[in-house]
Every structure is written in structure tokens, then in C-alpha cells.
Amino acid sequence: MFTEPFFQDSEISNSGWVEVVSGPMFSGKTEELMRRLRRAKIAQQKIELFKPSLDKRYHEKKVVSHDESEMESIVIENENDILKLSKDAQVIAIDEAQFFSNEIIDIIKTIADKGKRVIVAGLDKDYMGKPFGPMPQLMANAEFITKLHAICVRCGSLASFSYRIKKSKKTVMLGATEEYQARCRACFNLDE
Fold first, then answer.
1. What angle (nearest 5°) sits at the alpha carbon of residue 40, between those of residues 84 and 89?
2. What mean pLDDT is reported for the chain?
3. How many CA atoms lie within 13 A of 12 on its CB side?
4. Which of 84, 111, 178, 191 is spaced 20 to 30 Å from 74 by Cα?
5. What are residue 184's DSSP bridge partners?
6. In 3D, which of 137, 101, 94 has the Cα closest to residue 119?
7. pLDDT digit string (tens) for 32-74?
8. Best CA proximity match to 188, nearest among 151, 156, 145, 152
9. Which residues pair with 75 in a beta bridge?
10. Which active-site residues does the annotation give?
């Protein structure tokens, strides 16, 4: 079950905060990010959704989940653009945050310090099972963290790793089911 921040004290609810949605590939991170944005829209809050220019797997401009849900977004080349492009929004969302540089950490902090809600989704670990990009720092600085799991394609257990099927030493290699599998710890560590 997913929970979102809820405040009764109006003084607290006017302060900003950071929510991080993390987990392996195929765990529903982007779906959860979009679900939270849809709820913010129902509450008539102004939202902005950003994605890195690197992510062109499903669409040039839209954020698209593996289940083909989609939402309009602003494509970002430089993290600093998020500051000026989000100034009128109450809720700022960033998908695939692992692809940004560590500059994104201070940018997100600055936005939250201005009293805004920031929702960040991204892989917590790379294909080697190591912390990915700025995600560990974002998780350490977040008020709320949602860690999602997929289902291991080998054994059906809870999966928390993104296993790369195609052999490549590149840290960043975009892909979907042809390139990656969700795996549990035991199946991730199997030699193939």
C-alpha cells in the first residue's frame, strides 16, 4: 500500500518536502510518480513533470511507464533549468533522477526549501547492484521514501535488483525487457 504525506497542521503543510520513489526496473516507480501527480491535479495544484533528455525509450517528450501510461513532461538537458521552469508549480516531479548529475541534489533542496512538494522517481541501484547516481543522497535528504519491488522473473520472489541481460560495461544503457530483468538477490547473484 502506498501512502502520501498527510498533514493536519496548516503551518506544517505549507512547508516543502521531498518524496523519493525508488526500486529496480519494472517495479512501478513511474506509475507511482504519475499517480501522485494525478492526485495533485485533482486537488487543483499546479504541477510540473520533468525528465532527462537522455530518456527517449518510449517517447521524446512524454514520461511513459512500462505499462504505457503516459503524461506530458518537460525534457531537461541541464538540471538548473528545473529551477526556472518550476517556479509557478506547487508540485514538481522528476522521473529517472538517477540519470542526472549530483547537481540535482541541491536543486531539489532549493525547490523544497521554497515550500514546494518535490516527487522524485529513479533506480536506487545500477545493473551491478551499486548505488546509482544521486539517488542515495536524494533518499538520505528526503522526508518520505517509498521503496518499490518488482517480481523476480526467475523465481517469483520480490525483486530489488535490475539484472542486465545484454553484456555491456556501460553504467547507463537504456532499455526495457529486452535488456533487463527484475531479479531477487539470490537470482541476481547467479552466474550465467
1. 15
2. 86
3. 6
4. 178
5. none
6. 94
7. 999 999 999 999 999 999 998 876 655 567 676 656 677 889 9
8. 152
9. 51
10. 96
pLDDT value, residue 11: 45
**Tens-place pLDDT, residues 94-122:** 999 999 999 999 999 999 999 999 999 99
Task: Say which amino acid occupies 124.
Answer: D
pLDDT band at 92 (very low <50, low <70, confident <90, very high): very high
Which cell numbers hold the place of 63? Answer: 514520461
User: HEC string of the chain?
Assistant: CCCCCCCCCHHHHCCCEEEEEEECCCCCHHHHHHHHHHHHHHCCCCEEEEEECCCCCCCCCEEECCCCCEEECEEECCCCHHHHHCCCCCEEEECCHHHCCCHHHHHHHHHHHCCCEEEEEEECECCCCCECCCHHHHHHHCCEEEECCEECCCCCCEECEEEECCCCCCCCCCCCCCCEEEECHHHHCCCC
Cell numbers 520513489 correspond to 21
Whether 123 contacts 22, CB under 8 Å: yes
Q: Give the distance from CA 77 to its chain's centroid.
A: 17
- pLDDT above 70 covers what percent of the chain? 79
Q: Are 102 and 76 in contact (CB under 8 A)?
A: no
The amino acid present at 81, given as its one-letter code, is D
